[in-house]
Please model this.
Amino acid sequence: MSKKQDIQEEEENLLIQREFDALLEDYRNSNHRQKFEIITKAFNFARSAHRGLRRRSGEPYIMHPIAVARIVVREIGLGSTSICSALLHDVVEDTDYTVEDIENLFGPKIAQIVDGLTKISGGVFGERDSAQAENFRKLLLTMSEDVRVILVKIADRLHNMRTLSSMPPAKQYKISGETQYIYAPLAHRLGLFRIKTELENLSFKYEHPDTYRELEKRLAVDEEERKIFYKKFSEPIDEKLSSLGYEFKLKERLKSVYSIWRKMSAQNIHFEEVYDILALRIIFKPREGMSEKDQCWMLYSAITSLYKPHPERIRDWVSTPKANGYESLHVTVMGPMGRWVEVQIRSERMNDIAERGLAAHWKYKTGGKEESELDKWIKTIKEILENPDPNAIDFMATFKLNLFASEIFVFTPKGEIKTIPQGATALDFAFLLHSDIGMLGIGANVNHKLDPLIYKLNSGDQVEILTSKKQKPEREWLNYITTGRAKTKLETYFKKKEKALIAEGAKQIEEALAKINLKPENEHIVRILNYYKLTQPTELYLNAAKGVLDLNDINKLIFKPQNRNVFTRYLKNPFSNTSSGEKKSPPVQKIDLKSTVKLTEENAGKQYQLALCCNPIPGDDVLGYVDEHENVIVHKRQCPAALKLKTNFGNRIVSVEWGIHKGHSFIELIEIKGIDKKGVMMEILKIISESYGFNINRINIETNAGIFIGQLYVYVHDTHEIDALCRQISKISEVNSVRRVQNLKEDEPKT
Model:
């Protein structure tokens, strides 16, 4: 070994030791029992197992497990078992050691967590990422064994996102997509708000790097002004609470870049119109002899004596905590200079739960028998896992119903409070109470008034479900349920019912073929499918059992006696050689998934197609999905269909880059709002037609009380042209806002 290599190895050893010492220091500062010996043993074992391995960034591989372990203890608040599991989480996956080896050295509990983490690996940084949705199902199955598996996995994902810059763009899109689709909502549901925010921000950073940098710059420019405003707003609160004898901390809470962008996109507003970028958090030390809830309201009273509250923007999660354990009292008040500011009031305990989620939630449990909303949610996930959908992607969609939904509170006839996702129906509530009640439901008494099962519940409703033993579930029910529990129960019921129908239908088809001395062989079934314009045999059997098809057609029309011996000539055998008289199809050119596909006008329609669900145009942030025919389908990166593709088919995502498109125009929608003054529309049209020479497809204009809203569909070549046009129109004094409207449909991606 050369002297240079010796020096490099020595420097790396010092770096590794320094990081491990920092981990021990994080652990020393925690409230856990100090078990340094087993942590050091796990570190030494992992370091030896990973010796010689490096990450894509070039650093020694052991740096990754150490970083994950530091997140586990410092940012989530877990103890020695989880720290050891984090240090060992890749050993079984990447080396020759087995779970049995881990159990012999570190005991069954750590081995169980490492085993759970090993089962769900391969879908992130490995190449075996074709079954991502299946990996997520395995991830959730481990929850029933030990929820720490998920917490360590979230820590693992957080560090991978922090070091994602070393990955190629296509991998970045795939990993960012599945992070945004599942890991950020999981962190949210487990109460890890700080981690959830960082995961969203990092996903956004890699999906829309230019927009991310632009918003960061805007926040930096406004920083000094925000500091002045924060000081002016917070000083009176500081003085008031101090005079009341409270021990407290005031914290400035800045809206994340991703949250700002999401609000701008959802409400079609500019950065300057996002008024809640700044919030104030009050974290108080509770006084003895008085409940935390009462003290929150006392602080509320003190603040509203200084600033007037917004009557419709009070959020009380102290009386009824969120399903993930979150407790806080939020009030929006009118601050100096006419700006609304949100104030969040919480105790030290509430803040600990808000920051660290599940681990802190359990730390504060008093040993009472009452189930928390978080315990109930985990129980619901376990129920879904008992009857999982055989299609892993459908299962993922069902699980997603249980994640990001906001909660409302509904009462039973006896006054018992129940938490249910916002937008849930009376039927969802019936299944929440018991699956039998859901199956037999015929209607609901909502606030002592009869309503159908499709009635959407509001917070505070009192609901009684009416049932009948003669009732049977209808398939249409699936169209108006919103909870994963209800969907799982209904789909399990219908699948059992369909299974019996499919068997009956198959028997009927077999009997119909037997009458004309034919067996139910594949070529005969294909002929019948083609005649009825169906694609799947199960669909054929179901329709046959339901009496939808006239099975006499099989004898009279599909297999006419005179054609019975010759019809096979017309069936193409996919495995046979082409006859000499036929032209061979040109071989399909495989796409190199590691390369970047150039989107030029020449290869449009040949090598790539623009997705109809989001209609991207040159200049949009896009990615490619390679279908089974080796066509590249181009989606906007924020398209909901693309998000599902990144999550479920990450191995087919390819990096794409726009070429010059000046020969083809795209229709884009511009929305303009302003003062309805004579001549203003003529001025707008003059800019579009004369200054830029754009053609207009159609115009819709509505006016009301002196305000106009115009929707103009114009032909443009790329995003630069539409951005320049919007900037020019916004200079007209009567125009209040002008923006490109992007319609992102929730259509399922075609795979």
